[in-house]
């Protein structure tokens, strides 16, 4: 039996290659994700181990607000300079250096633009001299407060040289300040950066003022232990000596912490990639199911003969499953290999384009290998199980009959499809209405999966009318009519092939509906509520939001023609000692009220005093507060927590954020400067009259610009387009696999109908007509799949949009032009998919085909 | 009986010194060795001979389904030899009809659609009167909307015959059209073929093994080992059988496996 199986496998290798390819692609995606994240993870380990290599122990003040990597940057708070002396006094300390090091030092390049970073930090530091790690490559150390040194990577990116006057923006000064570049530094091993970070070295007083905002402060002390003392022992001594406000960690701990927070981000990224891999594999499953069904159908006589000569049903199942296992095994091996390649390629691209990360050696984590084989073989066997069962039910008598396999009724499959679809719909309803408790996401995803499978099961029933309708478009020619008949010929086969395409298209359509709706809702809300004609803000290019000098807000208010201005700061803060919350600070609540035409739901809208706060309706509900209640807030840079009294509750759509704090709070935020200012003009004033004058105010900050309302709204929603593009690219793989499915189905059908094709050619069908016949079949199938996908996707998208109505997504936008593009693309996909099988069919030797068995 | 058809007609199909060689070297098989034959218009010719004698090969070469190694083949006034794929396709579509031993019909099409298929491919409409005549002759009017799977083997062959006739081709080639049928259905099909020759002047060339079937023809050509060895006009089952027996003796020893 084993030999017979392997022989038949070999005889059918071409047919299996295409379906195997689907598994290869899915497995490639899975193992590639693991390889990529593992390689990047180890590269970051190396970077941080290096960055803290010269540090035995480090002292820092406890941060006021702890945030994860995904939420924003941690601010190491400043502490008085005398702490360095206290550290030095502890026995066992050989050397203690006060260090200023904070993100947000942005050099202005020779082209007048701020040098941006796609991820690595832009550190502003006090220059503490050369060390084991740092080496001065050119020039000298900074001696005056208007002198700086930068690392070679930054100098290269900014195209500046020693001796140049260069501008920079710093954490506490968001307007250009000019410095003389007096030196360049690099790192041991001839490296120009550590992990792509940009670094500027100031004199200590300049660094304190510009990066920490206070003279005579540091934000860490690096300590070298005296000989014989372990870093751990010294750490414990220091911690005792300094008390609980200080955090003392060994260099190893620091590097592990830093790496851990990065890995959190990486593992999220990994999950996203695996999600897309799952979609690809779902599509692949359809494809394999189809291939094995067709193969079993084609082998009916052979299998029946085996039954007739005594093979048991079990043996038949075994032989089909074995065949699947073999395909799965080979596909897993190939997929793993391809995954390693893709992972390496992406890691390289990441290292190169996202700022010069030196890659650790390529790693193939066990998870990659295990998942590759588990997924590849499991999927294949599961997909082959149904066809195997069907094979076992072939009666021996079938060997003797010239079977035109009778159409099995579609009742059972349709009923189960309806049930599964209903289950999916119910799950979706539960998930989307927020009744699933903590499991919202799994419930929704499960609902989507069930919906897909259910619709796939319903597809055979749908395929009859829809295919004949679609095919009707081509029925004006004989090849078209024949192609139409062929595509309606085996509803199950057509259905599964189309369903594979449906999954990818449905997801793309669904996501497009959701994002377009969100975008349009946001734009509409902004248009209807925002009575500001100009907006001062920066376009965000890196992980940090550009900010500007708070004085700009006040000066803007004095520009003739400006009615009122509100500047906005944002951050995360600990509210009422509990959870972290997103908060904003406004230079003037009254101005905001005027710009949004807000009327208070409770209390009054007026400029907030330093101890007052305003809430939105949903903010008040979440916190359980009303006018007159108090709340406390701890900010990144505040000494202790502040207490505020609620003075107003504003409607959600007429407020900025849910917790609106007074101007003074903004000065204690992580980024103590406004990121945006809304400017309302006095009626009758032309935008063009005021815009240049506002632009002049931010001329010394190349990151920030002044936009009119339309382009501001455009800016705000442009992120959606980027997100959409990324999702579309990732889902493209699922669509590619579906295309393979169409090629596969057609190729198998052509093979199956060899004699028919021979007959047609014998009675006068031309080559071109033969090709057209096959192409029509492909186009009908792929357009059918796309139609299904569009309907299902639009349905899912609309359901999600409906569920998000309370979140402010009130507009349902169906992307008609996109839908048109999908249909057009689907037709094209059909033509492309048909190319090979069609050529093959046209090339058939007429006589050979007729004699074909 | 030949008088009713008339002998003045030119040949509907002609083979002149046709050689057909398959393969090369050790595996070379010479299937036809200089066959020259004419198949007159309006006559029913049967080709007989032992298995492997080249009957099917000759028919395929005549019909433009296969190319000849040497010699020329023509259908009506078209020289088949040297035509490209497009030319051959046109020839098959417009001048030739086929009836195979089995698998003659497209399973997706109804009987009627199958019958009209060659004409629809060519973009021609059938002559309604002739169409009715053909349908009535094959006696399938009640079955026109049935698919091949719903028809018996004999009915399927009759549909195939109707398909070949409806386009009024120059010549119809049939390769053992009754090979898969029992004697009664076979007789139906053969009667029908003979009538279409007698009454409508159709030209038919039929390959067969069966002396009874050959007896329906006006003329029988005997092939042995790739050559025409004998011919019978106005055959009967007995005369055919006699001729066959004479041929079979040397052929059996040579082919070894009749
Ligand atoms: N494609 C081919 N390749 C090689 N040899 C072939 C091929 N087709 C036919 N032959 C050989 O040519 C010879 C004639 O074959 P052909 O099919 O014409 O015989 P036939 O008279 O129709 O026999 P039968 O009565 O068994 O159908 C045989 O010896 C056969 O083996
Ligand atoms: Mg033959």
How would you summarize what this structure contains?
The complex is a heterodimer of chains A (853) and B (258). Chain A is an alpha+beta fold and 853 residues long.
Protein described:
- The complex is a heterodimer of chains A (853) and B (258).
- With 853 residues, chain A is an alpha+beta fold.
- Among the domains of chain A are: 101-218, no CATH class; 424-530 and 714-853, no CATH class; 549-697, no CATH class.
- Helices cover 56% and strands 16% of the residues of chain A.
- In chain A, helix 2 (13-51) runs parallel beside helix 9 (313-353), helix 7 (251-298) packs parallel to helix 10 and helix 20 packs across helix 22 (767-803).
- In chain B, a hairpin with a 2-residue loop joins strand 9 (219-224) and strand 10.
- Chain B is built from 9 helices and 10 strands.
- Chain B has helices at residues 2-5, 55-62, 85-95, 111-122, 128-138, 153-166, 183-200, 211-214, 237-255; strands spanning 11-22, 29-40, 44-48, 70-75, 78-79, 96-99, 171-175, 204-207, 219-224, 227-233.
- Chain B is of the alpha/beta class.
- In chain B, helix 4 (111-122) runs parallel beside helix 6 (153-166) and helix 6 (153-166) runs parallel beside helix 7 (183-200).
- Chain B has a single domain (8-248), classed as 3-Layer(aba) Sandwich (Rossmann fold).
- Chain A binds chain B through residues 404, 406, 478, 481-482, 485-486, 489, 755-756, 759-767, 769, 846-847, 850, and chain B through 60, 65-66, 85-86, 89-90, 92-94, 97-98, 100, 103-109, 117-118, 120-123, 148-149, 163.
- Magnesium ion is lined by residues 55-56 of chain B.
- Adenosine-5'-triphosphate (ATP) binds next to strand 2 and helix 2 of chain B.
Summarize the topology.
The complex is a heterodimer of chains A (853) and B (258).
Chain A: H1 2-11, H2 13-51, E1 57-61, E2 79-80, H3 82-89, E3 93-99, E4 101-103, E5 106-108, E6 122-126, E7 134-139, E8 147-151, H4 152-158, E9 165-170, E10 173-187, E11 198-202, H5 204-212, E12 217-218, E13 220-225, H6 231-242, E14 246-250, H7 251-298, H8 300-308, H9 313-353, H10 366-392, H11 411-432, H12 440-472, H13 478-487, H14 491-529, E15 534-538, H15 551-558, E16 562-575, E17 580-586, H16 589-595, E18 602-603, E19 612-616, H17 617-623, E20 630-634, E21 642-650, E22 659-661, H18 663-666, E23 676-681, H19 687-697, E24 704-708, H20 709-752, H21 754-762, H22 767-803, H23 816-843, H24 846-851
Parallel strand pairs in A: 6-11, 8-10, 17-22, 19-21
Antiparallel strand pairs in A: 1-13, 1-14, 2-12, 3-13, 4-6, 5-9, 7-10, 8-11, 9-10, 15-23, 15-24, 16-17, 16-20, 16-23, 18-21, 19-22, 20-21
Chain B: H1 2-5, E1 11-22, E2 29-40, E3 44-48, H2 55-62, E4 70-75, E5 78-79, H3 85-95, E6 96-99, H4 111-122, H5 128-138, H6 153-166, E7 171-175, H7 183-200, E8 204-207, H8 211-214, E9 219-224, E10 227-233, H9 237-255
Parallel strand pairs in B: 3-8, 3-9, 6-7, 7-8
Antiparallel strand pairs in B: 1-2, 1-4, 4-5, 9-10
Helix pairs in contact in B: 4-6, 5-6, 6-7
């Amino acid at each position: 039996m084993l030999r017979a199986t392997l022989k038949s496998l070999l005889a059918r290798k071409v047919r299996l290659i295409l379906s195997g390819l689907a598994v290869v692609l899915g497995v490639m995606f899975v193992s590639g994700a693991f390889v990529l994240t593992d390689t990047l993870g180890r590269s970051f380990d190396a970077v941080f181990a290096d960055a803290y290599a010269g540090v035995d122990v480090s002292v820092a003040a406890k941060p006021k607000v702890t945030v994860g990597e995904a939420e924003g940057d941690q601010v190491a708070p400043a502490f008085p300079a005398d702490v360095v002396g206290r550290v030095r006094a502890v026995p066992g300390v050989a050397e203690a250096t006060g260090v200023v090091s904070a993100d947000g030092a942005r050099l202005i390049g020779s082209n007048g633009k701020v040098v941006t970073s796609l991820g690595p930090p832009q550190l502003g530091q006090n220059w503490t001299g050369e060390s084991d790690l740092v080496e001065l490559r050119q020039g000298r150390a900074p001696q005056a407060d208007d002198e700086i040194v930068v690392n070679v990577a930054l100098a290269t990116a900014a195209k500046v040289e020693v001796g140049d006057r260069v501008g920079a923006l710093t954490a506490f000064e968001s307007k250009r300040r000019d410095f003389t570049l007096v030196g360049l530094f690099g790192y041991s091993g001839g490296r120009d950066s550590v992990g792509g970070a940009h670094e500027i070295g100031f004199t200590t007083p300049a660094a304190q003022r510009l990066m920490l905002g206070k003279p005579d402060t540091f934000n860490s002390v690096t300590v070298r232990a005296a000989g014989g003392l372990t870093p751990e022992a010294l750490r414990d001594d220091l911690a005792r000596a300094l008390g609980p406000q200080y955090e003392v960690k060994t260099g190893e701990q620091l590097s592990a912490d830093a790496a851990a927070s990065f890995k959190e981000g990486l593992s999220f990224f990994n999950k996203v990639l695996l999600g897309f891999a799952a979609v690809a594999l779902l599509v692949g499953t359809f494809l394999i199911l189809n291939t094995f069904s067709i193969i079993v159908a084609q082998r009916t006589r052979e299998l029946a003969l085996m039954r007739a000569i005594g093979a048991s049903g079990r043996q038949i199942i075994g032989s089909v499953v074995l065949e699947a296992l073999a395909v799965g095994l080979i596909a897993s091996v190939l997929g793993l290999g391809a995954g390693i390649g893709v992972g390496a390629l992406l890691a390289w691209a990441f290292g190169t384009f996202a700022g010069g990360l030196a890659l650790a050696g390529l790693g193939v984590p066990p998870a990659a290998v295990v998942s590759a084989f588990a997924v590849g073989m499991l999927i294949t066997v599961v997909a082959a199980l149904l066809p195997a069962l069907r094979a076992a039910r072939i009666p021996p008598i079938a060997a003797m009959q010239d079977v035109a396999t009778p159409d099995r009724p579609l009742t059972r499959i349709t009923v189960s499809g309806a049930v599964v679809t209903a289950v999916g719909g119910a799950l979706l309803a539960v998930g989307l209405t927020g009744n699933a408790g903590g499991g919202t996401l799994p419930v929704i995803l499960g609902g989507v999966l069930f919906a897909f499978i259910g619709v796939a099961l319903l597809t055979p029933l749908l395929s009859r009318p829809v295919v004949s309708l679609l095919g009707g478009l081509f029925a004006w020619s004989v090849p078209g009519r024949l192609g139409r008949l062929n595509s309606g010929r085996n509803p199950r086969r057509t259905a599964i092939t189309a369903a594979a395409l449906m999954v990818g298209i449905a997801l793309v359509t669904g996501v497009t509906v959701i994002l377009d709706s969100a975008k349009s809702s946001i734009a509409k809300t902004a248009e209807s509520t925002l009575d500001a004609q100009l907006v001062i803000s920066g376009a965000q290019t890196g992980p940090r939001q550009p900010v500007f000098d708070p004085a700009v807000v006040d000066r803007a208010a004095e520009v003739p023609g400006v009615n009122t201005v509100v500047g906005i700061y944002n951050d995360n803060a600990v509210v009422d000692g509990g959870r972290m919350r997103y908060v904003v600070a406004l230079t003037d609540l009254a101005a905001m009220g005027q710009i949004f035409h807000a009327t208070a739901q409770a209390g009054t809208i007026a400029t907030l005093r330093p101890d007052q706060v305003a809430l939105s309706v949903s903010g008040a509900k979440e916190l359980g507060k009303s006018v007159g209640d108090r709340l406390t807030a701890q900010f990144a840079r505040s000494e202790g927590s502040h207490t505020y009294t609620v003075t107003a509750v504003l409607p959600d759509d007429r407020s900025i954020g849910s917790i609106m704090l007074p101007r003074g709070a903004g000065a204690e935020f992580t980024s103590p400067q406004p990121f945006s200012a809304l400017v309302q003009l006095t009626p009758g004033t032309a935008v063009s009259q005021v815009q240049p004058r506002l632009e002049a105010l931010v001329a010394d900050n190349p990151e920030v610009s002044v936009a009119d309302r339309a382009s501001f709204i455009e800016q705000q929603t442009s992120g959606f387009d980027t997100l959409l593009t990324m999702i579309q690219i990732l889902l493209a793989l699922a669509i590619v696999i579906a295309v393979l499915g169409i090629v596969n189905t057609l190729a198998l059908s052509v093979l199956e109908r060899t004699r028919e094709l021979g007959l047609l050619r014998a009675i006068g069908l031309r080559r071109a007509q033969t090709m057209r016949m096959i192409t029509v079949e492909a186009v009908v199938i792929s357009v059918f799949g796309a139609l299904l996908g569009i309907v299902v996707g639009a349905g899912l998208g609309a359901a999600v949009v409906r569920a998000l109505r309370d979140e402010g997504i009130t507009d349902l936008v169906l992307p008609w032009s996109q839908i048109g593009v999908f249909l057009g693309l689907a037709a094209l996909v059909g033509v492309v998919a048909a190319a090979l099988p069609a050529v093959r069919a046209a090339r058939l030797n007429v006589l050979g085909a007729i004699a074909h068995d | 009986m030949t008088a009713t058809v008339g002998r003045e007609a030119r040949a509907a199909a002609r083979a002149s010194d046709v050689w057909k060689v398959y393969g090369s070297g050790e595996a070379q098989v010479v299937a036809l060795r200089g066959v020259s034959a004419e198949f007159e218009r309006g006559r029913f010719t049967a080709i007989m001979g032992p298995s492997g004698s080249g009957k099917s090969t000759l028919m395929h070469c005549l019909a433009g389904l296969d190319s000849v190694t040497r010699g020329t083949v023509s259908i009506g006034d078209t020289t088949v030899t040297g035509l490209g794929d497009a030319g051959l396709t046109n020839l098959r579509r417009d001048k030739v009809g086929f009836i195979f031993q089995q698998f003659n019909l497209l399973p997706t099409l109804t009987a009627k659609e199958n019958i009209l298929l060659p004409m629809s491919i060519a973009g021609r409409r059938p002559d309604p009167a002739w169409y009715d005549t053909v349908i009535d002759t094959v006696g399938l009017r009640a079955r026109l909307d049935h698919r091949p799977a719903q028809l018996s083997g004999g009915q399927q062959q009759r549909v195939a015959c109707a398909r070949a006739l409806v386009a009024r081709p120059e010549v119809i080639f049939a390769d053992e059209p009754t090979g898969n049928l029992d004697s009664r259905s076979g007789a139906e099909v053969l009667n029908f073929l003979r009538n279409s020759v007698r009454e409508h002047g159709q030209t038919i060339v039929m390959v067969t093994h069966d002396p009874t079937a050959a007896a329906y023809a006006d003329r029988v050509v005997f092939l042995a080992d790739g050559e025409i060895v004998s011919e019978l006009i106005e055959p009967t089952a007995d005369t055919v059988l006699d001729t066959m027996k004479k041929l079979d003796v040397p052929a059996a020893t040579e082919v070894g496996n009749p």
